[in-house]
Design goal:
alpha/beta; five-stranded parallel beta sheet; about 15% strand; binds 1,3-dihydroxyacetonephosphate; binds iron/sulfur cluster
Amino acid sequence: MALTWQQPLPEIYNQLSDAELRLRIESAKEALGDKLVILGHHYQQDAVIDFADFTGDSFELSRKAADQKGIEYVVFCGVHFMAESADILTPENVRVILPDLGAGCSMADMANLEQVEECWAQLEEECPDQIVVPITYMNSSAAIKAFVGEHGGAVCTSSNCRNVLEWALAKEGSGKKVKILFFPDQHLGRNTAYAMGYPLESMVVWDPRDGLGGNDPKALREADFVLWKGHCSVHALFRPEHVDQVREKYPNMKVIVHPECRWEVVQKADEAGSTAYIVKRIEAAPPGSEWAIGTEVHLVNRLKNEHPEQKIIVLSDCQCLCTTMYRIDLPHLCWVLENLVEGRVVNEIRVDPHTRKWATVALERMLAIKGNGNPIGKKQPAGTTVD
Ligand code: 13P
Ligand code: SF4
């Protein structure tokens, strides 16, 4: 895919007031009518969410994109890898637009195709008698999803990671040892595998900057999970001591975190689950419930505003904001919509045909796997820690 950069917005869009932007966005939406669907990820700012036809986590939104009939444009208010997935899952004639091309994901950028191919070659050489199944988190480039599709693996999201890992591990039927290569988020991989009953010793971390990922050959061969050394810079801000502080200050408060948080945080929390799980959990909780939530601050604040009958706080006051998600704002949304009204498609996200073909295989494998939405359970042997 050709690399494109965000062009500066025409100055007028920065000069308009919020009220003016809102009016112009509404009238552009009206003019585009049924041709357009706007998708908004839960981490988007409220002003943008106001204009979304559907909101959800990356899994729900990828399904929504796939379900739309007869539309011409998807404006994806989220980050680059989500818009790529929407392009892959929608028919060829549907044009997918990301309002700001600078809205990337630092985690997705931690694994590139060249590094993954290099890792694969080394694993094939070291473990020739094993079945290695590559699983990539939705938060990865289309090129990596395609690699996974071409090599017998699948995509997963934080909503269905466990189900996808169970599907992959069931390949064991052949009598060969199955090894999972999981990227790019080591934490989601570790938290999920651990909840499935795999001990930490059955996992190694693959550092793409080191020979054999920084592992010795024996450890690599014996591992059930090879976890790519990637992480989310937002969820990494939550630390175990934040859970301790909440426990001390609010003894009745439950702690719920996203599984992109580090293992020690998940172990100390009461519950862990995808953004969709967190949303459902709060929606179903009785009045008077108290929650400290370890995920992106826009979602936490939205839940807090929507549920004044509960006490809701962010797990830490570290300003856990996804700055790339935050790039999508009213001026950019207005600009892309007004261009569409004029018949110009700006900021289109297009995945090339070869990548599309194989990434579709990986995404469709995920969509076919049943039983999504289970939270990450946890068990804690005394004294265990992860670097
Ligand atoms: P979800 O899969 O829960 O939407 O997470 C996406 C994401 O980017 C979380 O950081
Ligand atoms: Fe990527 Fe983390 Fe932002 Fe999600 S919150 S889009 S994983 S940087």
